Amino acid sequence: MKTTDPPNGASAIDCGLIPSLLSSFVDTFIDFSVSGGLFLPPDPLNNTGNPLQTVFPQPSRLIAIGDLHGDLIKSKQALRLAGLIDPGDRWSGGSATVVQVGDIFDRGGDEIKLLYFFEKLKREAAKTGGLVITMNGNHEIMNVDGDFRYVTREGLEEFKNWAMWQCVGNVMKKMCSGVDENFVIKDLFDGIPCEFRNIKPELLTGVRARVAAMRPNGLIANRFLSKNQTVVVVGDSVFAHGGLLQKHVSYGLERVNKDVRDWIRGTKEKVANQLVRGRNSIVWLRNFSNELAKDCDCSMLEHVLETIPGAKRMIMGHTIQSGGINAICGNRAIRIDVGMSWGCGNGLPEVLEIIENSEVRILTSNPLYLKGYGASLPPNEKDGIGSLIPEQRVRQIEVNA
Sign (positive/negative) of CA torsion 112, 113, 118, 119? Predict the structure, then answer.
């Protein structure tokens, strides 16, 4: 090694062949520091540059998980309900397919940790023939848009910590001359105002860090959210955070995923509002998720499903179901957001399971259903909640989380 004349009078080292190793080490160090102590295994798929897959074959076992909103503890409980992780938080789901329908962001303080945890599970699952799919919800889109209305102080603190480690890593990389400039952040806060109206001074750094991470082509948005689908078909089940209308299907499901991904990556300036903004968009729709079944448009749902080859049901989150996971419209619309996160209802975890022969059941940690609570509801209340096959809520499996 030899020293060179560095800028600003500081000493730098000509590291020869070391720069790439140093850069990799620093990135791993940062990941470990901001993820809560995780080492990401190598990505066996490395699909970063490939188009997002929209249609997947029917797996032998399919698990659907609702909104998680920054709650790592409840998320792990939900995964354990389905036997997808072991006591050491490693993937144990074998060849199962998991779909998390979005809204990892907001209302909690473990948002970045959740992104890393699901990324770890994706890589571990791929080694055993399993598959973990994460989707965009309205809160992912809001954050890319810079809409932080539902951000918590804990969430801002997590992003502030993330930004600090990014800056530390940058300094470490610059200590060794020859590091590829593509792996060095020129200015994390480039273009971001130093002040925001109505933002308290103690929150300002967290807000600026969140903008830097989540804006189109931001480090978090590009690395994690650009891998999310906005609509997915797995076997005979269609997944969307809020739901799909005929106009979305006509737009083209693959095109939906491509357009949203390109916008998140910053390669497309805008994305159509009908896809991700407004009450009739894919991530905001509530036409099929109102808790009162009579307020849901079953005829519209039937028409939408008829235009998607092989589709038997639509599975969605977005709207909290206080009575737990349920279905309406002859079990063609299944609603799986049970408000399990601490900041959004603190409900007991439930997940949906679909076996290869299309047997559908709910896995729950709520002991009330095993005591006949669901069967004891008056008929009008059961109709209002919308039960998943009248007797099926009694057939749930209780799992200690």
Answer: positive
**Do 272 and 331 meet the contact criterion of CB atoms below 8 Å apart?**
no
pLDDT digits (tens, 9 = 90+) for 202-242: 999 999 999 999 999 999 999 999 999 999 999 999 999 99
pLDDT at 348: 94
Active-site residue set: 139
Sign of CA dihedral 96, 100, 104, 109: negative
CA dihedral 96, 255, 319, 313 (to 10 degrees): -60
Helix runs in 128-200, H state only: 138-144, 153-174
- Answer yes or no: are the C-beta atoms of 213 and 162 closer than 8 Å: yes
Structural contact between residues 180 and 20, judged by C-beta atoms closer than 8 angstroms: yes
pTM recorded for the entire structure: 0.88
Label each residue of 73-86 as H, E or C: HHHHHHHHHCCCEC
Q: Which amino acid is at 194?
A: C
Determine the pLDDT at residue 70.
98
Phi, psi of 168 (to 5 degrees): -60, -45
Residue 86: how many CB atoms within 10 A of its CB?
A: 11
As a whole number of angstroms, the distance between CA 233 and CA 311 comes to 8
State which amino acid sits at residue 19.
P
- Calculate mean pLDDT across residues 295-313: 95
Query: How many residues belong to the chain?
Result: 401
